[in-house]
Each structure stands twice: as C-alpha cells, then as structure tokens.
Amino acid sequence: MNQYARLLIEAGPLAAFFIANSQAGIMIGTAVFMVATSISVLISWRFERKVPVMPVVGAGFVLLFGGLTLWLQDDLFIKIKPTLVNLLFAAVLFTAHLTRRNVLKHVLGSVLNLSDAGWRTLAIRWAWFFLLLAALNEVVWRTMTTDAWVNFKVFGIMPLTLLFSALQAPLILRHQVPEEPPAEKSSSAS
Predict the structure, then answer these.
(1) Structure pTM?
(2) Is 113 helix (H, G, I), strand (E, B) or coil?
(3) How far is CA 53 from CA 58, 107, 108, 162, in A?
(4) pLDDT value of position 104
(5) Is 176 helix (H, G, I), strand (E, B) or coil?
(6) Angle, vertex CA 59, rays to CA 64 and CA 45, nearest 5
(7) Is 180 exposed, middle or buried (0-12, 13-18, 19+ CB in 10 A)?
(8) What's CA 188's distance to the chain center, in Å?
(9) What is the pLDDT of residues 133-158, one digit of tens each?
(10) Which residues pair with 176 in a beta bridge?
C-alpha cells in the first residue's frame, strides 16, 4: 500500500470524527469514530495481509474508551484516550530502551534501514514526543471546550506528528545503512 493510501486510511477516522462531532455532537462523533476506526483497520489488513500493530492498538483504545463514553454518556473517556495511548507508547519505547530492545526497529524495520545507534536515538525521540502529546492533550481537554478539543485532536495532533516525523529526516539520513546488493548468482561451468 502506498504512503498516501495509508495516510488516508489512518486520517479517515479522524475526519469522520470531526465531521460527525460538528454535525451531531461528541456522542455521535464518538460512535462514528469507533466504526470508522474499525473499518480502517480492516481495510489496512485487507491490503497488507498482516495485522498493523500500531493501528490495532489505537483501535483497541478507541473501542474501549469510545464504548465507555457512549455507555456512561461521559465524554471524559474519549478525551483521555489520546493521553493514555501516548503514555503507553512512550512507556513501551522507554522500557525497550532500558532493556536494550528496540521496538521501533521491529515496527519500522521493513521501511527504514538504520544503524543501531540511529534506531536508539529515533526511539528515544519518539518516546519524548509521545509524552509531549500526552501532556498537550491533557492541557487542551482540561482548559477548552469539547469542540476545541476535537479541533485540536484532528488539526493539532496529526500535523504535529507529521512535522515531528519530517524533522527526523536528518537523523534518519545520518544513520541510514545502505542495503546490501543481492548476491550475484555464480554460473557454474559444465
């Protein structure tokens, strides 16, 4: 699947959430977000024929906290979901770093080929970024209206993530390991 299709599949549920919230409120928006997230994971699986780890974890949180939001009719649960997801990702990356394992290499190793030092630095940077997103989400949902929080979730978190990703390009280029060319087949003389 190309990058644009992947971005559309990942951003689609957020767009659906934003539109449904603006038209019918946070409860309908949450229900639409849950359905759209589930569909996006299924589409991703259909095209890639593997379970995408990060989207599945995110979908699990959307279904859990969205379900609590609808069941208890309390938007607190959908608002704290980004905080908890980002704290989970940060904790996984920090723990992996302390135990000298690189989860990020496992997740992105098919896309990037970096030195071990590059993977470690990239993982730590992402861990700190996830902590920043968790803190920002807490500030926004506690100090602004629900509609302002939805706007931040849709138009703040995604652009910040894309910007942060782009800012990692120098690190990635500096630590990129050239792929080895495939071994040439030796022709045997008969």
Answers:
(1) 0.83
(2) coil
(3) 9, 8, 11, 19
(4) 85
(5) strand
(6) 145
(7) exposed
(8) 50
(9) 999 999 999 999 999 999 999 899 98
(10) 114
- Helix locations, 49-115, DSSP H: 53-72, 76-98, 103-108
Rg (CA), the chain: 20
Residue range 12-60, pLDDT digits in tens? 899 999 999 999 999 999 999 999 999 998 988 888 777 777 788 889 9
- Single-letter amino acid, residue 107: V
The predicted structure's pLDDT at residue 184: 52
Indicate the burial class of 99 (C-beta count within 10 angstroms; 0-12, 13-18, 19 or more). Answer: exposed
State the pLDDT at residue 106.
81
Six-digit token string for 27: 């409860």
How many helices (DSSP H) and strands (DSSP E) are in the chain?
9, 0
Structure tokens at 47: 């095209």
Taking the C-alpha atoms of residue 122 and residue 186, their distance in angstroms, rounded to an integer, is: 39
Q: Which residue has the tokens 């861990």?
A: 127
Contacts of 25 (CB under 8 A, 6+ apart): none
